[in-house]
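Feature request, filed as a ticket because there's no other form

It would be nice if the structure record came with a short human-readable summary line next to the tokens. Right now we just get the raw output. Example of a typical job, pasted below so the devs can see what we mean:
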Amino acid sequence: MRVTDLLQYARVHRAMAVLAGVTVVAVLSALFGGTRIAVPSFGGAGYSTGIPFRRELPMLSAVFLTAALGGGMATHEELATPRVHRARTGFLAILVFVACGISFVVESLAVGHGGGIVYVRSMLIWFGIALTSIRVFGNQLGWIMPLGSVLPLVWFAPAWWDWTASGSGDPFSWLIVGLSMGVGVTAVAASSWRLQAFRVKRM
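Raw output as currently delivered:
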């Protein structure tokens, strides 16, 4: 896989627009992330239902990242040669890495190193969920499952499984990162032609 392959793929798949969206979300979090939004909650009676903006904003960045997999040729690309699939995988890995770097730097400047880690961790979790949503609902609907996952985080707060509120070193939250990314990457890789090829090999 050559650098020119990645650059060409990135140009066609709106890499700069995606990163611009991620940057805007990170800046919004830095500027207004501490603002609390009053929301309904099934938490304890003494719990304040004000949820800081920055807890949920990483979901938007994750959904923006999945936009790079869309486009009019998305379905045809699943039937492409191994070279195209390598370019696609490399492009997405670099895009996610750069997006995480931008988000970490901006959020760390606003709320500190730990806050930057939590922000990136949440983005990775929602990115894995968004990848799964793409496989289930289609390339343009990566937002459905991430949005659905926000509801229990808000309604049942505070909860021990809320990765948006736990500390940067919380092992369970990092386990969720691994599970989410593992399921998401597997879901995207399990294209219809690959599943068909797998069935043929087993026959």
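Something like this underneath would help us a lot:
The mean pLDDT is 82.
Residues 105 and 112 are 9 Å apart (CA to CA).
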